Structures are given as structure tokens and as C-alpha cells.
Amino acid sequence: MALFTSDKNSEKVQKTEAVLEDAAKAQEAEQAATGKVRAQSYWQVSWNIFKKNKLGMICLGIVLALAIIAILAPVIAPYSYKDQNLAIMNQNPTFAHLLGTDEYGRDILSRIIYGCQISLSVGIISQAIALFIGFVAGVAAGYYGRWVDAVVSFIIQVFSSFPFLLFAILIMFVMGPGLINLYIALGLLMWTTTARLIRGDVMRLKNSEYIQSCILSGGNSFRIIMKHLLPNCISTLIVVSTLGIPSAILSEATLSFLGLGVQPPDASWGQMIAASQPFLASQPIYSIAPGIVIIITVMSFNLLGDALRDALDPKMRS
Amino acid sequence: MAEEKNTDVKDLSGEKTILSVKNLVKRFPIKNGVFGRSNASVHAVEDVSFELRRKETLAIVGESGCGKSTTGKCVLRLTEPTSGTVELDGEDFTSLKGEDLKRARQKMKLIFQDPYSSLNPRMTVMDIIGEPIDIAGTYKTKAERDARIEEVMEEVGLNLEFKYRYPHEFSGGQRQRIGIARAIVLEPEIVVCDEPVSALDVSVQAKVINLLEELQKDHGLAYIFISHDLSVVRHIADTVMVMYLGHQMEFATKDALFEHPLHPYTQALLDVIPRIRHERIQEKRILQGDVPSPANPPSGCVFHTRCPKAMKVCSERIPNRIEAEPGHFCACHLYNTSLTDGDRTPQVAHAIEAAQKAVEEARLEEKISE
Asked: From the list B76, B105, B182, which residue is nearest A218 (CB)?
């Protein structure tokens, strides 16, 4: 019996060895083909760490699903978001309308699906604007220092000392409601976080020896910023944006709720909640459904941001 | 490694001077208050002068904080010197600007102390080594550029397989090789090595030092070798400059300095090199006290507060650079022949005398009062 199992074991060992050899050969062949030796880059290591975070992976899945829903909204949505049908006003869920209809007889599910487009685009575009302004301001303050730093830091202080919502209402009031103005208003409001973090990063990196070496070789500021500072700030930018996107989505919902954001007939989650208020008792699903969608979206982005921070932070690696 | 002498002594007599540093001074202002007024300054480098020939290795040694690294950085103008001139190939390097500075800097490179922070973690080895050529635009085609990088990688002993890897995948010694490759890729004339091996294991140190020596032989490089490790210096240097608190204490050829140190500070420094021999600890001259603050350096000779041979004059006047022996410079009053006997009173005797006088005066006063 013992003999038998050991034989079997050795057979197994031989098999695994053969598999390993094949793998090694395949890798060599691949290397010869590409001319590169595959190395574990920083991003690969980060991905490996990220993969182990189950919650992070779930959130990444939800975020990707939301993105797909937003892109494919016209295909997925069972009805148009704006076609009114006054015969079926304020219906509770039926098989034809899974989440019921609103006060103009529009399908709530379709409006939520289209609202996804608005919410994600607000989150991403306003955050992109914020990242751009924040990165430029942060690099200018951290890299050039002296009076540039003093001026930029002062502006950051001024911007971040306003109450967020009041300032947003003010900007939207001045520029007038509308989607593009909403992007700009939220971008203008959120760049200070990015600028602060990038400024700190740059101040830390600017005296590093590889940048001194670049200066010694005659590299100009543009090269230092693009080749050395930006790649080393990327992880900060990623984390800031995954945490900034949900706050932009929430702000959009708030502003639309107050009537200063997305204008009807465009569908926005915040605006839907606002519209559903008179029917809270008779048709609770009307306000609960967009509310739950907002919660899920914001939470997934936030948790994704946390997971990314853990994966990208070099201190988390042993 | 250090005990045996270099068998093949380099003949540097025919080589031309390529770097000449005169009266280099660097003071860092200390800023106070909201408006950043500077009331005082840290005297990092005070009046340092030296010359460097082709193929020569000049070692700058001293305790930490003595200004050796600052001297190196001032020579490269990574920090602008407060005053003094640096002449590179007969050209005044300190006054260059813009494109001229960029061109002149290609002749001088720096190897850093810490191989972990001197390489950008987000760049591949090839891009790190290739950065100086990319900036200078030496090669027109990518193939030529890559060929040159591979050539340098082979020269410093890096496996070509690693060219697309990132710095964090390498050991300290390999990283330092990458740093060296980056420094020599443009074929500079002078390489400032800022403690290039002090962050490495001893076994790796020897390899890196040998690599530096080989490169010097092959390319005629001149090194400014900044180090606090005297055994390494003894191995690699041709001439040695000893610094203390920003001042140049002694400047001599390696053999003259190690066999026959003149300055009391150098003597004390050489005494504390660990040796596996029969010497007794008692014979060593071990310095007492700490290095004074460079923000508030002592008057006269900066070393007089710790010098076992301090004299009265030492706290009063700054010693000049004296050529005590041919080619052997020393900034110490001991070798100043123009001093009077009064100046030469040992500081200790002076102190005792003053104390005795004070006691006698006190006694006289007591007698009078009686």
C-alpha cells in the first residue's frame, strides 16, 4: 500500500515537473518573441495586492457595471426617459414598469438607468477638471515654492473655507443651471483637496536625488514634472479621484434636488428624489429606488478608493 | 583591502589640471520669523581650494556635517556657492548660465550616497541610465541610444536581461551600478562620488570600488571621492583633503597624509581607524567633546576647542594654509614659523596660569581686608 502511494506521488511530482518545465519553456519563447524580460512592475505588484481585497474587487465590479449601464443606457432601458404617458401616472410597480411610473407616466427604472449617465459623467468630468486644476496648482506651489506657494496656498485656504454647498449654490446661481455648468462648478469646488495633496507630494519629491540627477543632466522643469513628478504622484491622483467622484455624485444629487443642477426632462437621481417628495406616502418606491442607487454608487466608489489606497501605498507592502 | 598599498602607482605628473576650485564658501542663511529675515548663517564650507587633474582621485574626508557633501554639491552647482570660483577646463563654471551651463555640466556627474532614493522608482533601468543622453540629445535614433545604454550596462556589470526592470527589483550594489552607469553614460571628465559605498555591505563595497577604479583607468575619469571611511579612501585616493567644520585642515598626497599626518585633527582621525593589530587603546589620541555648531563656529582655528595641542594663538587667529612640506598643505599654527613664544603658550598652561593668578589675587584681597 505504502509503495503504491509513493509511486503515485512520484508520478504526480513528475507531472508537475513536466508542467513547470513547459511553463518555463513557454515563458522563454515569449521572452524571445517580445525581446523583453517580463518584470513585476509597480502596477503589477499593486494589482496583486488589490486582487486579494475581496470588498475592493466587488466594488470594482459594481463600478464597472455602472459604467457599462451608463454607456449602454439606450439599449438596456425598457422605455425612453422623457416620453410622457399621462394615462399611467404614479403607478406602483407592475410587470410592464418594474419600478412603477412617475407623475408624468415615465418609467422610473429607465430614468434611473439614464440617470446613471448623468451621475457618472458628473463624477468623472468634474473630478477630471478638479484633478487638472489641482495638479497644476499643487505642482506650481510645491515645485516653485516661495511666493507662488504663498499665493496658491492662500487661494486654497480661501476656497476651502467656504461652506461647500453654499458655494456650489452660489456658482450655479451665477452661471445658471445646466449640466456643463454643473461640471465646472463642482470642478472648481473640489480641486483644493488634490492641490493640497499634490503640493505635499511634490515638496517631498522635489529634493529627491533622482531629480537632482536630472537637473545635473540639464533637464528642464517640464521634463522633471512630466517624467519624475507626475509618475510618482499618480497613485495619489488615483486615490483622490476615487474618493472625489462619489462626493461629486452626491453634490450633483443635492444640487439637482434643490433644482440647481440637472434640468428636466433630463433624468438625475437627485432630481428624481426631489420630484418624488409629494408621493412619499402613496408611492414610496419612487424615492427609495434612486436613493438606494445613490447609496450603492457612492459606497462602491468610496470602498474602491480605500482598497486602491491600500494597494498603492508602498508602506502597506512588506 | 586597505592595508596593502597600490602596487601600480599612477603617474599623474603629466596630466593636466581640469578642475580648479578657489576660495569656495557656502553659507546657509538661518531664517527666522514670519518674514524670513536671516540673522545668522550656517557656515557649511569656508574657504576651500583644491585642484584636480585628469585620472586623479581626490578624496574629501571628515566627520559628518563637516561640509564634504556641500563642497561636492557646490562644485557641481547643485547648491550655488556663496562665493569662490570653480574653473572647469579653464572656463569659469560658476558664472555659466542656460545652455552653456547645461553643456559644461555634461563634463561633471554625481554618484549619490543612497542607491535607494537616487533612482526614480517609476522608471525602467534603461530610461534611468538613458536620461542624460535623452536630455543632451546625443543620439538621433532610438537604436543608437539603446545600443549605447546596453554598452554602458555591460561596462558596469549589469545583466542586459534586466534592462526593462524597475529599481525596486535590484539589490543595493546593483542599484549603485545603475547610478554609476547613469553617471558615465555621457562620458564625463569628472565624477563626484558622494559616499558611493557607505550604504553598501562591505563585500559589495569592494566590488563597487574596483568598478570605479576600472572605469577610471579606461576612461581617464577624475574623481572627487567624498567619504568618511578612511580605509576606503586609503585604497582609492591619490590626494586627500581633510575637512573639519567647513574648513580645509590638511591637503596632501595619500601616502604623505597617511604615513605622516601633520594636522592634529588628521592625526586623531587616523588613530581611530579600526585595526586588527597589537596597538593599545591608550596610545590612541581620542578627541574629547563634540563638533561645535557650524552656525556659531569657534573663533580662530575652528578646531582649537578639541585640539590636544591648542595654543594661545589658536583661539585668536585663523591659521593660513601653510605648505609645511612640498605639496603637503596644512592649516595649523603649529607649522607657522612666524609665531612668538607668547603665541605658542599651550592653551592648557595658559588656563592654569590664569587660574593661579586669579587665586593669588583673591588671597591678596583677603590679606588686605584683614
From this structure: B105
Residues of A with CB under 8 A from a CB of B: 36-37, 39-42, 208-210, 212-219, 223, 227-228, 231-232, 234
Residues facing residue B58 across a β-bridge: B224, B239
CA distances from A250 to A255, A269, B346 (A): 9, 10, 80
pLDDT digits over B31-74, tens only? 765 565 666 788 888 888 888 888 888 888 888 878 888 888 88
**Distance between CA B284 and CA B330 in Å, rounded?**
21
Which residue of A lies nearest to B186 if distances are taken between CA atoms? A217
User: Would you say B62 and B109 are in contact if contact means Cβ atoms under 8 Å apart?
Assistant: no
ipTM of the complex: 0.74
* pLDDT number for residue A11: 59
d(CA B192, CA B105): 12
Cell of B215: 572605469
Of residues B317, B330, B115, the one with CA closest to residue B243: B330
Contact B178, B198 (CB under 8 A): no
- For the cut 50, the answer to whether the pLDDT of residue A6 exceeds it is no
Nearest to A266, CA basis, from A123, A114, A69, A99 = A114
DSSP helix/strand/coil, A280: coil
Residue B324, classed as helix, strand or coil, is: strand
The pLDDT, as a whole number, for residue A78 is 79
Q: Which residues of A touch B190 (CB under 8 A)?
A: none
* Total number of residues shown for chain B: 370
B211/B162 Cα distance (integer angstroms): 19
Supply φ then ψ for residue B358, to 5 degrees. -60, -40
3-state class (DSSP) for residue B292? coil
Could you report the per-residue pLDDT of A172-184, keeping only the tens digit for each?
888 877 788 888 8
Q: Among positive and negative, which fits the CA dihedral B14, B16, B17, B18?
A: negative
> What distance lies between CA B41 and its chain's CA centroid?
21
* Residues B280 and B338: beta-carbon distance below 8 Å: no
- The pTM (predicted TM-score) of the whole model is 0.73
The DSSP code for B321 is P
Q: Does B109 touch chain A if contact means CB atoms closer than 8 Å?
A: yes
Contact criterion met (CB below 8 Å) for A99 and A108: yes
Residue recorded with cell 415615465: A106
The distance between the two most distant Cα atoms of chain A, rounded to a whole number of Å, is 87
Residue type, B340: T
d(CA A204, CA A249): 32
